Amino acid sequence: MKKKVLVARPTFPDVIERLKQHFDVDVNLGDVLPQEEFARRLADRDGAFTAGEWVGEKELAGAPNLKVVANMAVGYNNFDMQAFDAHGVLGTNTPDVLNETTADFGWALMMAAARRVTESEHYLRAGKWQKWSFDSFLGADVYGSTLGVIGMGRIGQALARRAKGFNMRVMYHNRSRVAPDIEAELNAEYASKEDLLRRADHVVLVVPYSKASHHTIGAAELALMKPTATLTNIARGGIVDDAALIVALRENRIAAAGIDVFEGEPNFNPDFLVLDNVVLTPHIASATLGTRRAMANLATDNLIAALGEGPRAGNPPNPINPDVLKK
User: What's this model's pTM, rounded to 2 decimal places?
Assistant: First the structure.
């Protein structure tokens, strides 16, 4: 008898076909499942393919056969890992395959904020552009400025590599310093968070979300930044105190922001919408066809291997809590 798998969100048809070669697959082809419906459909499954669904104690306790949940994302703040360990369920994620695409988007968002792209486009579309003037939409230079990266993991390093072509000074803050050879390669200076915020012209956030990183940037941190600086968040909602950021933007305490992730998304603070000096995107930093396909296939590789199928049977490539495998 085939093991049973839930695919909680629509994905590429060929990915579903790969799973059907090994498993009895229940696919949600509609909108995001309400949490109770997700839990109900998970109850008799051996594995699940998720893309942001909350999986915690209640869901795991109600799914006694569950062995693995494969998240189509690098971040896994939608998993209660303490509950996963307690129930002996493996969690997996999809690192590396989205590093470069996400770094590209971080740069796009940062530059759009710095050069007031969204604001000036809205002005043009509204029919307000009647003449050229020397002081129209004056923004901030990127070339030759100082980039501050908070979170120097794989994506943070990819961001820093791009700074070389813009002749930028690079500062970074991380839980721990990266290896000296990486610092040398990136020409990156380690700094405290406070020092980075005071000195950087463009701050980009690339830290994973956890209780410890909640509101890494709040009112106190924003007060340290230059009034000419920009802030870009491509990490996770909750890393920034959105309400505090809105106040800082409204009062021009910082020049601009580029925000791809929000607290409580897909809901977000509507006060963002009345601000001209913020670029808003709906969590699309990894949204290229090639990257999303690579993420879906890697999540599938994890699911197949964790359930004892395929060439890597029993050895999934990206376990989050590998001690479960030993048990």
Answer: 0.92
